[in-house]
Design brief:
Elements lengths: L7 H16 L1 E2 L9 H7 L10 E2 L2 E2 L5 H18 L3 E3 L5 H12 L5 E5 L15 H5 L1 E5 L10 H11 L3 E4 L10 H11 L2 E5 L4 H5 L12 E5 L10 E5 L20 H13 L5 H15 L1 H23 L3 E2 L8 E5 L7 H10 L2 E2 L1 E3 L13 E5 L1 H5 L4 H15 L5 H16 L9
Parallel strand pairs: 1-13, 5-6, 5-7, 7-8, 8-9
Antiparallel strand pairs: 2-3, 4-10, 9-10, 11-12, 12-15, 14-15
Helix pairs in contact: 2-10, 3-10, 4-9, 6-7, 11-14, 14-15
């Protein structure tokens, strides 16, 4: 890394982040390390090109090359997820969700989504988010005893409130998304079904998590997390049909495809120019995910999470839902007299990066919480496997069991650094 035209202040800040990534254990479930190829293309000259619109239908000239880039990304994304349609322009998962809502809903419509405090996402109806402010969201919860979604309860809520759209998926739910069960409920009450697969997208793409097809009308995702691409969003349709509301093209009078409505909702609905350098990064990530090696990588993510979960349980920790099917684990600290906020802080001081997280039926605020969320994608990207997960669980326990002992924290930090040195990261970046 050059010294950014002698901007040493900025260079030093970036170097600091590089050192943090190299010598800490990144265990935030929504984070990962992209390949050097993704890093390179995201930092390419493509950042210079404004390209409002879509390939062949731009509002600016000079888009011949970037049209090719976007088409490559779309084709690879469709192949990866076995989808008729993919929009690769959303800047984030949140904006992908916003575009879907804009297409399927009117302000005030009833929507059902997983409670944020039970593993959902801000855009699934939180009152501090646009989703909860513009639409009438009814939150469903996980079962107090099992920590899993209870479909009888969801069906009762759906029958009572008659949602226009039901959302499945979340940001802190450690189990498989049961798309087939959600479909039954959606059909029972005449609702559309949307899946937010931001977290398990890589696992779904590699066939290690149930597919949303043919159950879901529309699917959104981020492109980082388990997919290991740049930060951004995508929207997918399994089978692109005529739109469900008979909206017609003004000149020809033909009924527009659902894909056309989604395209319009993204641009000009909520965005202007797409980030062509990021779309190129997405194209690289999709190609990487289409390689057979990616499935082995995802298998190791799941194996690592499973081993980590069992090891934490063996050390006496309570896990929400009793374990994990995926890449993430939600740890309940309420019986240990430790808040998620304190646990996150002390673990970070020891070189282990996690995030505080509410647990179902949490009595503490979102700023304090009773739990922490951990995940294995970034550790797996470094080459760590099951034996390292056992060691890491012991290091986590050492911190949490000696939360006020600064000497222990320092000892753990030294062990973390030694472990990281054995699994090098971005060696060619200086």
């Amino acid at each position: 890394m050059e010294k950014i035209d002698k901007d040493l202040k900025l260079y030093n800040a970036i170097s600091e982040e590089l050192e943090r990534e190299r010598y800490t254990l990144e265990m935030i479930a929504s984070e990962n390390f992209t390949s050097p190829s993704v890093l390179e293309v995201v930092g390419s000259i493509l950042t210079n090109k404004y390209a409002e619109g879509y390939p062949g239908r731009r509002y600016y000239g000079g888009c011949e090359a970037v049209d090719k880039v976007e088409n490559i990304a779309k084709e690879r994304c469709q192949k990866l997820f076995k989808a008729d349609y993919a929009n690769v322009q959303p800047h984030s998962g949140s904006q992908a969700n916003m575009a879907v809502y804009l297409t399927f809903l009117n302000p005030g419509d009833v929507v059902m989504g997983l409670n944020l405090a039970h593993g959902g996402h801000l855009t699934h109806g939180s009152k501090v988010n646009f989703s909860g402010q513009l639409y009438n969201f009814i939150s469903y919860n996980v079962d107090r005893e099992t920590g899993r979604v209870n479909f009888d309860s969801i069906l009762s809520l759906a029958k009572k409130h008659k949602p226009k759209l039901i959302i499945c998926g979340g940001s802190a739910y450690p189990r498989f998304i049961e798309f087939n069960e959600f479909r039954k409920i959606a059909d029972e009450v005449g609702a559309y079904l949307m899946a937010d697969i931001a977290h398990p997208s890589g696992l779904i793409a590699s066939g290690l998590h149930p597919s949303p097809w043919p159950y879901c009308d529309i699917v959104t995702s981020t492109t980082h997390k388990t997919l290991r691409g740049p930060r951004g969003g995508i929207i997918l349709i399994g089978k692109d049909l005529d739109n469900k509301w008979d909206i017609k093209a003004p000149k020809s009078g033909r009924i527009k495809k659902m894909s056309e409505l989604i395209d319009s909702s993204v641009m000009p609905g909520i965005q202007g120019g797409p980030l062509m350098h990021v779309i190129a990064g997405k194209a690289i990530a999709f190609k990487e995910a289409l390689n057979p090696e990616f499935k082995q990588y995802c298998k190791q993510i799941i194996s690592n999470a499973h081993t980590l979960a069992i090891s934490m349980q063996n050390l006496g920790y309570k896990l929400i839902s009793g374990g994990t099917d995926t890449h993430l684990i939600l740890i309940d600290l309420s019986d240990r007299g430790i808040t998620g906020k304190i646990a996150e802080k002390r673990l970070e001081e020891a070189g282990i990066t996690t995030n505080k997280n509410m647990i179902p039926y949490d009595e503490k605020s979102p700023f304090i919480t009773s739990g922490i969320r951990i995940g294995t994608p970034a550790l797996t990207s470094r080459g760590m496997k099951d034996q390292e997960m056992i060691l890491i669980s012991e290091l986590i326990d050492k911190v949490l069991s000696n939360i006020d002992n600064d000497n222990i924290i320092k000892e753990v930090n030294k062990e973390v650094i030694d472990l990281c040195k054995s699994f090098k990261l971005y060696e060619n970046i200086v």
